[in-house]
């Protein structure tokens, strides 16, 4: 069975409340784009783009390809994590089509600013095709994202343990356990259906962020960076959280590395160049969503 995938932004007119909600989402996304533009403008005022182009001219393509492979695996695992959340609500979507839908969402997130978001796109498609409850779908995707944020926090604290005095490490471990316990209690209270899969999906999420961190390390290696890897990774992971404030994280990562260069010993143009390389890798794989959207005859059709 196949489904015509028409752009939800031009679907049948919604009630007034829905239109207001949609307009609010569009305004938020436009604001994120403006934040990205403003931050990039600030960064490029401090670091001329020709400096970044000069840095890129010496890039080791082999390391970039290796990093891209790790990034791709992390995205496939992300689709698998979402599959667990869907199945918790008895939504049975096979892995192949879940991956296809995940990359479609990536495409919407990266290339259609101000329009429907990738997560909303997934909800729309699954609701339209299978008549699955939109509230439960939203709950699945929200908890999937929450699990990812928890993993970022855990991994950041693990990396921080390599930098702090030994006597502080037990406190960091207690902080990690307390954070996981707090999220567990919140899930148990508000979303009990996901309680049985919390630890399993958290492990997957840590693995996902670990793979993306390895990707970033390979990108650093591609520009012949040596040393300070722990600091780089902490800033990289922190930017993943703050990326919610900008469009696809663009501008946030570059700005954070620019500011961090004032306090840590690394070359600012190289760190910003690496961040932009990561954005390029993300954009490349987001295009896969476009390939899934258009069939051989350029028909907008998604067989799921």
Automatic annotation (TrEMBL):
It is found in: Cell membrane. It is a multi-pass membrane protein. Its main location: membrane. Keywords: Cell membrane, Membrane, Transmembrane, Transmembrane helix. One of its GO terms (cellular component) is plasma membrane. The chain crosses the membrane at residues 26-44, 56-78, 99-126, 146-164, 171-191, 197-219, 231-252, 272-294. InterPro entries: L-PG_synthase/AglD (IPR022791). This is Lysylphosphatidylglycerol synthetase.
